[in-house]
Amino acid sequence: MSSASYRFSIGPWNIGRGADPFGPPVRPAVAFDDVLAAAVNLGFEGIQFHDDDAVPDLENLSPSKIVAEAEAMKRKLDGLGFVAEFVAPRLWEHANGIDGGYTSNDPAARRWAIERSKRAVDVALALGCDLIVMWPAREGTAVRESKDPIAASAQMIEAINAILSASPRARIAIEPKPNEPVDHAFVPTIGHALALGARSADPARVGVLIESAHAILAGLDPSDEMGFALAAGKLWSVHLNDQNGLKFDQDKVFGAANLRGAFDQVRVLEAADYAASGAFIGFDVKAQRTQAADSATAHLATSKAVFLRLVEKVRSFPKQTAAQCIAARDYEALERLVLEHLLAA
Ligand code: GLO
Ligand code: MG
Known about the structure:
It is built from 12 helices and 10 strands. The protein has 345 residues and is α/β, with parallel strands linked by helices. The chain has a single domain (7-317), classed as TIM Barrel.
C-alpha cells in the first residue's frame, strides 16, 4: 500500500465546448485563466499543455519569443502553485499536418513536424518540465495503400530521435491510440510505443502515457496495458477515462462504462506504487454536450471522486481471502469476492 499521495492534472481541452462531428460548440469558450480557476476548485495540481495552449499562435513567433511567452506562463503557474506536467506538440490541427506530421508523404510537412516538436521542447523546458507527450494522431492512414508502413516506422524513430536530441533533459511519453482521426494508426498500442522507444537513440528517455479509452479501442484491457508498461518502468502518465465498446473515442467519466475495469486500473497503479513515482493522474474526459456551462467541470470532479473511492476499494480488498481462492484455484470464489467487494457499501 502506498503512503504517497496521488497528484492530479488537467488539460485545457478537458473543459470542452460540447462540439461533436455533427454539431457546433454549445458552450462559450473557456479562458485559460478560468481553466486554472477550475483546477484550483477541483484540487488539481498539474497542468497539461498542448504547445499552443501554453504559447498561443506559436507558429507566428520566433523561437526566442516562444520561450519568453512560455516563461511568462511559468511565472503565472508558479504564482498559483501549479506545475506543468507535459507539453504535446499539436500537429494534428495545423494545415501542414493534414496527412500526418512525422509520417506525412510530404517531406516539407515532415520537416515542419519535427521543427514544431523541437519548439515544444523549448516550451516544456521554459515551463519547468521535461516531458513531451507524443500523441501520433494523424500518423496513420485512411487508405492503407497511401503510405509505406516500413518507412513510417523509420520516420517515427527519426522524429523521436530529433526530439531527444533537442535537449538531453527531454523525455517522451508516447500516447498510442489505434484509430480516430485515422483509420489505422501506426502506433496503436503500448507494445508498439515501447518497441519504438527501444529502437530510439536513447531508450531510457522514452516511455508511455496510457489512456484507458485508447486501450479499449484497441480491444485491450487498460489495466494489462498499464501492467506491461509498469513492469518496464515506463508508465510516465495516464489519461484515465472510459469507453463503451468499439465506438468513437468517448472520453467518458472514469468508471462510467465499466466500474470493475476502472477498479482493475487503480489496482495495478496501487500495486506498482505509481503515486510514489511522482507521475500524475490525468483524466482525459469530456463534458457531455447536454451539460450547462456552469456545471461543465462535473465530469472531472466525478472522475477524481470515483478514482479516490476505488483507491479505498483496492486498499480494503480482502487480499488474504483472495490469495486462498487463488491457491485453491477456485476462481469462481474469487469472482464472487471481487463482485461482493465492489457492491458493498
Ligand atoms: C485524443 C487524445 C488527446 C491527447 C492530448 C494530449 O484522443 O487523447 O486528448 O491526450 O491531445 O496529447
Ligand atoms: Mg489522451
